[in-house]
Amino acid sequence: NAGVTQTPKFRILKIGQSMTLQCAQDMNHNYMYWYRQDPGMGLKLIYYSVGAGITDKGEVPNGYNVSRSTTEDFPLRLELAAPSQTSVYFCASSTTRDSGWAFFGQGTRLTVV
Amino acid sequence: DAKTTQPPSMDCAEGRAANLPCNHSTISGNEYVYWYRQIHSQGPQYIIHGLKNNETNEMASLIITEDRKSSTLILPHATLRDTAVYYCIAPLSNFGNEKLTFGTGTRLTIIP
Fold first, then answer.
1. Distance of residue B93 Cα from the nearest chain A Cα, in angstroms
2. B1-30 burial code (b ≥16 CB/10 A, e <16)
3. Residue A70, φ and ψ in degrees, nearest 5
4. Contact B44, B37 (CB under 8 A)
5. Which residues of B touch A (CB under 8 A)?
6. Chain B contact for A66 (CB, 8 A cutoff)
7. DSSP letters of A95-112?
8. Who has greater pLDDT, B53 or B12?
9. Which pLDDT tens digit goes with each residue over A71-100?
10. What is the pLDDT along chain A (113 residues), one digit of tens a residue?
11. Using an 8 Å Cβ cutoff, are B39 and B92 in contact?
C-alpha cells in the first residue's frame, strides 16, 4: 500500500496563478483532510471531507477550494495564489471507526512569489 | 475537540526517558487522547492513543491520569532520532469525529 500520496512535492507559483494540489489514498478511508503548516508553526486545518461528495471548511479555508468525487482522491485548489499561501501542505486520511488515527502524506512545499 | 495544552519545548538527554505532558482538562468521557510526532518537515506520524487505561506499544507509553485531565507520553530510552515536534490531540470522539485539529505541540530536543 502506498498510503497517502501527495503531488507535487514542490512547486513555485507566481502571484495570481492557480494550481491544484493532488492527494490520493489507497486505504479506503472515508475521512480526508487538508492542512497547511507555516514555518515554525503548527498544523492548521483548511478543509475536510467525511466521504465522497461531502466537504466542509476547517480553520483557514479562505483562498482554497476542494472537491471529493471519489473515496480515493481529495484535491485542493488554490485560486489566485498570494504570498500568504506560501506554506507546506499536508493531506491526511482516517477511517470512520478510528478517525483520530490519521495517516499523513509527505507534504507539498508551495512558494508563491 | 477538547482543548489541549503542551509546553512549547523540552530537552532530554540521550538514553534517558522523555516524559512529555499534555493537559486536556476539558476532555469529555468519550474523547480519546492521541499523540503524533513530526520529524523535521515530514508528515506527522501517529504514535499512540488511549481513552482511560495506560497504553504501551513499540514506540512509546501513554499514561492517562484517573480524572483524564492530563496525560504523559513516555519515550523510554530517547535517541537522537526522537528529536521532533510532538502533538497531543483529543478529537470529539473516536467514532465519527470529522474535524481533526492540531495545536502547536512540544518541540523535543534530545541532547547527546
1. 8
2. bbebebeeebebeeeeebebebbbeebeee
3. -130, 165
4. yes
5. 32, 34, 36, 41-46, 49, 87, 89, 91, 94-105
6. no
7. -STTTTS-EE---EEEEE
8. B12
9. 999 999 998 999 999 999 999 999 877 778
10. 689 999 999 999 999 999 999 999 999 999 999 999 998 899 999 999 999 999 999 999 999 999 999 999 999 999 899 999 999 999 999 987 777 899 999 999 999 99
11. no
* Contact (Cβ atoms closer than 8 angstroms) between residue A61 and residue A46: yes
Q: What is the pLDDT of residues B55-111, one digit of tens each?
A: 999 999 999 999 999 999 999 999 999 999 999 998 876 555 567 889 889 999 999
Nearest CA in chain A to B84: A40
Residues of B within 8 A of A50 (CB-CB) are: 98
In angstroms, rounded to a whole number, what is the distance separating the alpha carbons of residues B10 and B17? 12
B95 with A105: Cβ contact below 8 A: no
| Cβ–Cβ < 8 Å for B72, B62 | yes
Interchain pair B104, A42: CB under 8 A: yes
CB contact under 8 A, B95 and A96: yes
Enumerate residues 6+ apart whose C-beta is below 8 A from B43. A4, A90, A92, A104, A105, A106, A107
